[in-house]
Amino acid sequence: MNTVVDIGTLYLSEVRLSYFYGFEPFLGKPSPQIPNPKPVYKASLIMGPDHPDLKKAAATIDAVGSAHQWKGGLTWAQVKAQLKAQDKICLHKGDVSAPGDPAVAGMFYLSATNSKPFTIVDGDRTPLKASDGRPYSGSIANAFAKIWAQDNTFGRRINATLTGIQHVRHAPSFGGGPPPASPEEFGIIAAFADEAAPSGVEAFDDLLG
Q1: Is residue 109 within 8 Å of residue 45, measured between CB atoms?
Q2: Three-class SS of residue 51?
Q3: Where does 53-194 show beta strands of DSSP type E?
Q4: Domain ranges of the chain
Q5: What is the pLDDT along the chain (209 residues), one digit of tens a residue?
Q6: 4, 6, 41, 51 - which has most CB atoms within 10 Å?
């Protein structure tokens, strides 16, 4: 595992992914505030209230906020109160920030984006691509994010840039239906090997009969 290089680098273990756009970017709809949205890669990293890394995420945000010299001479305590009231901190409470969303009900989530593709690997650190069928919204993953303070003409926020995702294991997909089948779940087609069809074929015939 990589070494933490500064106070803004955050590693989260075994979070659940939601709104995962890692292989293709997400393009939001134009709005008065953002008339020309740019495509972004993103994910929400969901943690339960007893997740061991939840306090670490909050502490990292506090460290970044405290270290930043906020314009106007404001203290982090003052800015933090404002940002919490406006829901402009990347760590969110699901019931407050996304009421009615069953994926985050009773949970917390870190909202992280990146304008560029981020690293996506399997458990053995092999790079993954979309055709591998993992990770996906609903699956369990480890994640690296960089927490940083925004303090400019576009306003004040505490943001998270997603820099890497590692697939850990399958879980029910938020997109509907079960997780993708593993290639190993299939039998070998007779035309490609000198062996009988998998036993599942006979079981299927019995079901129809």
Answers
A1: yes
A2: coil
A3: 91-93, 108-114, 119-121, 140-152, 155-169
A4: 9-208
A5: 444 457 899 999 999 999 999 999 999 888 887 788 899 999 999 999 999 999 999 999 999 999 999 999 999 999 999 999 999 999 999 999 999 999 999 999 999 999 999 999 999 999 999 999 999 999 999 999 999 999 999 899 999 999 999 999 999 998 644 455 666 666 666 655 554 444 444 443 433 33
A6: 41
Contacts of 13 (CB under 8 A, 6+ apart): 52, 53, 142
What is the Cα–Cα distance from 203 to 62, expressed in whole angstroms?
A: 57
Reference 138, options 91, 102, 112; nearest CA is: 102
Quick one: CATH architecture of 9-208? Answer: Beta Barrel (2.40)
